Amino acid sequence: MYPIRRIAGLTAMSSALALAFAGCAPAAGDGDASGGERPDQLTLALVPSQDQDGLVETATPITDHLTEALGIEVNGVVSRDYQAAVEAMGAGQAQIGFLPSLQLWQAHDMYGAEVVLQTERDGNITYPAQFMTNDPDAYCDDEPVERDGKLFCNGADAMQGPAGLDAIDRVAGARVSVLGPGSPAGYIYPILALQEAGVDTDADIQQVPVTTNDASVLAVYNGDAEVGFSFWDARDIIGDVPDLGQEVVVFALTEEIPNDGVAVSGDLTPELQQEITDALLDFSATDEGREALESVYSITALAPADPDSLDVVARAAEALGLG
C-alpha cells in the first residue's frame, strides 16, 4: 500500500477527541477464538459534509437498524473534523465510521481498520471536486449552460472530471472558500490542480476557511468568496435558495475522486465486522434505508469496497505534503 504519514496537527486534534468523544468508549464485551472483541455497545462516527445540526437524529434510522440487526446498542456521534473521526477509531472511541476517501485510507493504514463498503451516488462510485464562482465572466470561456436548474460552463455540465481546468489559473488573486486539509474535494484535489496549473496556493489566493461543503457554496453565493471548492454538486444540498443554481456557476471539475464509505474497527471480531457490513448492505437495499442514507450523505446505495482504489487519494495528499 502507498505510505502515508500523519497529517500535521493530528496530535493537537487527538487531545480534543477526549472531549468530542468523551463517554463513547464501548462497554467491554466477549472476545472469541478468532481474535477481536464483541463489545456490548458500538459507536458510529459521522463526518458532516454539510451543516451538522441534527445529523445524529437524521442518522437514527441507521443506528436503530444496526442495533436491531446486531443485537448490540449502536450510538451515533458527529465529529467536527475529518481527522478526529479517524483518531476516534484509532483510540477505540468509535468502531464504525462513515468517512471520506482519504480518511478511509488513513483508518486502514494507521489503525488497521477494515474498509468494508463504498458509496454509490446515482450509480457512480467516483466524483469530481468542483470549482464554483459568482463571476462567470471571469472564468467561463463559453456561455453557461443550464442543467437541472443549475449553470455550468467550460464543459463542466458533462458532470465528470476533469473539465475546465484550463481556466483555473485565473483564480490567482481571488478570495477562495476552502475546506480543511483533510477534505479530498474541498481541499486536496482542487489545491493540487491549482498548483499543477502554476498557482501558488499559499501566496496567490486568499483562502476563506469553511468547515463544510454547503458553507463553501454559500460563501460564493453570499459574495464572501469569488471562487469556492466543494464536491460535485454541493449546490443540491442547499435548501430554500431558489436562485442559487443561477448565481453560483460551476466552471471546472478536477480528476475523479473515489467515493466515501464505511470502515469498521480491526479490533472487532471478523464475524462482527461481517455482520455490520451485511446489516448496512441490507439496510441500503430497503426504501427506509435508501431514504436515510440519502438524508445523511446523499447516498443512493452501498457496495462492497475496493480498498486499493483509495491509493490515488493518498498519493494526492502526499503530493501536497499532507501525507
UniProtKB/TrEMBL annotation:
Stored InterPro entries: PhnD
Keywords: Signal
Protein's GO biological process: transmembrane transport
PROSITE patterns: PROKAR_LIPOPROTEIN
GO cellular component, one term: ATP-binding cassette (ABC) transporter complex
Signal peptide start-end: 1-27
NCBIfam families for this protein: 3A0109s03R
Family listed: Belongs to the phosphate/phosphite/phosphonate binding protein family.
Protein name: ABC transporter substrate-binding protein
Species, as recorded: Sediminivirga luteola
